[in-house]
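Posting here for the record, re: adenosine monophosphate.
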Amino acid sequence: MANSYDVIVIGAGPAGYVGAIRCAQLGMSVAVIDEYRRKDGEAALGGTCLNVGCIPSKALLDSSEHYHRVQSELAGHGIRVEGTTLDVPQMIKRKDKVVADLTGGIKQLFKANRIEWLQGHGKLLAERQVEFTPHKGKAKTLTTDNVILATGSRPIEIGAAPLDGDRIVDSAGAQEFQEVPKRLGVIGAGVIGLEMGSVWNRLGSKVVLLEAQEEFLSPVDQQVSREARKLFEKQGLDIKLGCRVTGTRKGKTVSVHYEDSEGKQNLQVDRLIVSVGRRPNTDGLSSEDADLLTDERGYVHVNDYCETNIPGVYAVGDVVRGPMLAHKGSEEGVMVAERIAGHAGHVNYETIPWVIYTDPEIAWVGRTESQLKAAGTPYRSGTFGFAATGRARAMDRADGMVKIIAHAETDRILGVHMVGPQTSELIAEATLAMEYEASAEDLARTIHAHPTLSEAVHEAALAVGKRAIHKAN
Ligand code: FAD
Ligand code: AMP
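Prediction output follows.
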């Protein structure tokens, strides 16, 4: 280990490790400090995203989708499967292997880029010094020209439902169940709650989601969230809105006490997932005399270029404002690396795609209709249902729709909202269109292959001008 580097990154999640690789590509000497350790005690790169977030959750979503299809969809295709059994420990093992392969890949990338991986805790000191405390051994002070804080976030815990790592768990614990809970409660029907609820619902749990807000998926376009709720309820997810959880009691089962508009209620479950949001990891991140500015919720204060109040100290990813999404953090990491190297890096915060990996998937980019109404922006919108596309029908995946919103006068696309099959992939076209400041007309005049799901995007763009072909306008 050297004493001095061009850049020290604290945190090896998608914001920190991507930023580190870009710094190395631009010729800087880089060290990355990360304290994460797996359940077997081994250190691993990749942060929340690779170890307990994006990747393992998608691995389980995929496995559970296969199971569900075998159980209830294949017969419709004329494929009869008998004697199907479920091996949950194998499902978890496969998920762990996917994670191990990917985190191992980052280790190789660090090697190839000559990035030093320091396993332990990092702390920002005054004068751009960094204290590194290894998992075993004494703390050491390192000097550097630039520091990138990328310490990410952790689940919010609530007093009404303290975690015990067994029956009351957070999103990481929800990916470790060794058997399917008969009854599963989920506090918080947000992105993570819905994804975790969907996994266990497909595997056979009776899932009840308790959500504090009166509105379902409030950041999502209302037409899309209404459609999604209908589809999720058809799958058996019991979504209860306007519920305030007041306490839990553990006996043979977990008793969840909550209040809704009708008064006090009680729910008995075998396991409970608490997924009420995440908070930034800034406790103990900097010494007092470093003078790092954080806001009242603990986020590191930054400007549009992820510069903190201290020259040469940057912060990226979940530890700063903006959506807690891996790709948002990665783009910030790249921007900061390029700006340190004297280039003109930037992040377009207007075109960050969001995806909820339920079935069907929900995806969007840009403004919702309610946001445009509130801002008084004149707009036109066009919608198109997957039911009218040949490919979705052939796949037996005809639920959902695409909606495109464009400025009423300039026709510039302001938002694209989808619920339906593979919308996590379809949203890329919309994001690119918005990045290029395309009009709905541009999309309408772009040739889309037939038969594909992307034809729904094409038809929605045509529908903005009331000229969709496969629907009455
Ligand atoms: P993190 O990934 O949280 O990494 C921070 C790292 O810093 C961690 O390894 C941590 O141990 C380390 N660290 C913290 N403090 C210190 C310190 N002082 N010293 C040393 N190391 C430290 N986002 C998506 O875009 N798509 C998804 O599908 C998606 N699915 C998700 C599913 C789940 C269940 C969860 C929980 C999250 C999901 N997210 C998803 C969110 C995504 O994981 C985060 O937005 C992303 O990981 C943030 O990246 P980051 O680099 O800022 O921080
Ligand atoms: P997300 O940040 O998308 O994972 O969503 C978290 C969800 O949890 C949001 O929809 C919040 O409204 C919801 N939430 C937050 N606190 C509570 C609470 N105490 N009880 C129920 N839901 C909550």
